[in-house]
Hints:
- Strands 4-3-5-12-6-13 form a six-stranded mixed β-sheet.
- It contains eleven helices and 13 strands.
- α8 (202-209) links the parallel β8 and β9 (220-223).
- By secondary structure, the chain is of the alpha/beta class.
- α1 (10-22) packs across α2 and α1 (10-22) crosses α3 (36-50).
Amino acid sequence: MFSRRLIPSTAALIAFEAAARLGGFRAAALELNQTQGAISRQVAQLEGQLGVVLFERVRQRVVLTPAGRFLAEQARDTLARIAQAAAQTIAFAGGGGTLDLAILPTFGARWLIPRMGGFFARHRDISVNFSTRVRPFNLRAEGIDAAIMSVDPGSTGLICHRFFGEELVPVAAPALVARLGLHQPADLARATLLQQETRPTAWGHWFAAQGLTADPHQPVLVFEQFLLVIRAAVAGLGCALVPGILVADELADGSLCRLPGQAGQDGGGYHLVYPAEKERYAPLVAFRDWLLAEVGESGNTSVTD
Length: 305
């Protein structure tokens, strides 16, 4: 348990943070509409409570001490989190608010973003802050309300809805198919393979599913995002193994063609993941219900303990 004795008043933290950020008590007083003496007293109170000097007084100026610099960074982050929590709490009353959503970049660009107009038409009072992630991350540590991930993270206290399975299809540019004569699955051994970096085993599994053994010396180009894998395939740099829903446009316009062989399964899929304590947060509830309705299924839901 934390010691309540060490918890400063919010007013003192606000006064200190403003003085630290603006470089003086006078500027802080102007920003906060207080007197300079009031700011000075609150900072002095904070120093007395913590037992450390936060500012050095030098010739009519105040300069942060090492302890002051440390506390200023922490206070800024803490106050921002409190403000965010307050805004999200208010959102429970009206159904509006802000959703901080992390998405996979290619899935977001190819599937989610083109459909978000339907969500905003129904929920004009909800704003969504999008960020992109490719690798696993800690939602709570980064202050993210929810994320769309390619795997169930299996972390403690997270709710996970698997709303799409994943079928990995081999594709290549028609010119490359003609030049290398890629007519049978075994023919792909003559091509450069294009790989997304978080799926290092996908091609090996695909060759095994065709009854073939992957050549460990076969040339491979590795990319951080599926979007780059797809662009490289269109440019004729090699054969790609990508989720079918991400290359629907290229298959339709003929810039890529489906290669021989059955689709691969690499244990992936698309999951909406969020901390259990966010389960009733109004903007998240609205987005979750819209997303699951959009894919036409209730999704498979799991909660980790």
